Amino acid sequence: MKIIVISIFVENQEKALAFYSETLGFVKKHDEPAGEHRWLTLVSQDEQDGTELLLEPNEHPAAKNYQQRLFDEGIPVTMFGVDDIQKEYNRLVEKGVRFTMEPTKMGNVTIAVFDDTCGNLIQIIEQ
């Protein structure tokens, strides 16, 4: 068994697609109609056959509540790995990304947290 898709709830799929592709650098893999929304997934540039990130509409009340509660509590919804966290932090800050936690050493790893502009906090980690 392996993980093939992870999903995060987003307030607006088009806005999320722009942020995750143009700002973060993920590559769109699937963009198919799914009722009034889309099956919209992205992958890492370096692992285009790897795990897909599904940008899922948060229209269900439970999804909205879950997303808002995590955001209000400062809890990231997922984590992305980076090779050089300071370099990635600087790159994203230059693109206007707002961080809620600057790169911080925690034992053997360094983490940082940013706002994805779509209702989520995202953690990046250098191991």
TrEMBL record:
Matches recorded under SUPFAM superfamilies: Glyoxalase/Bleomycin resistance protein/Dihydroxybiphenyl dioxygenase
Pfam families: Glyoxalase
InterPro entries registered for this protein in UniProt: Glyas_Bleomycin-R_OHBP_Dase (IPR029068), Glyas_Fos-R_dOase_dom (IPR004360), VOC_core (IPR037523)
Annotated PROSITE patterns: VOC (PS51819)
Location of the VOC domain: 1-127
Protein name stated in the entry: VOC family protein
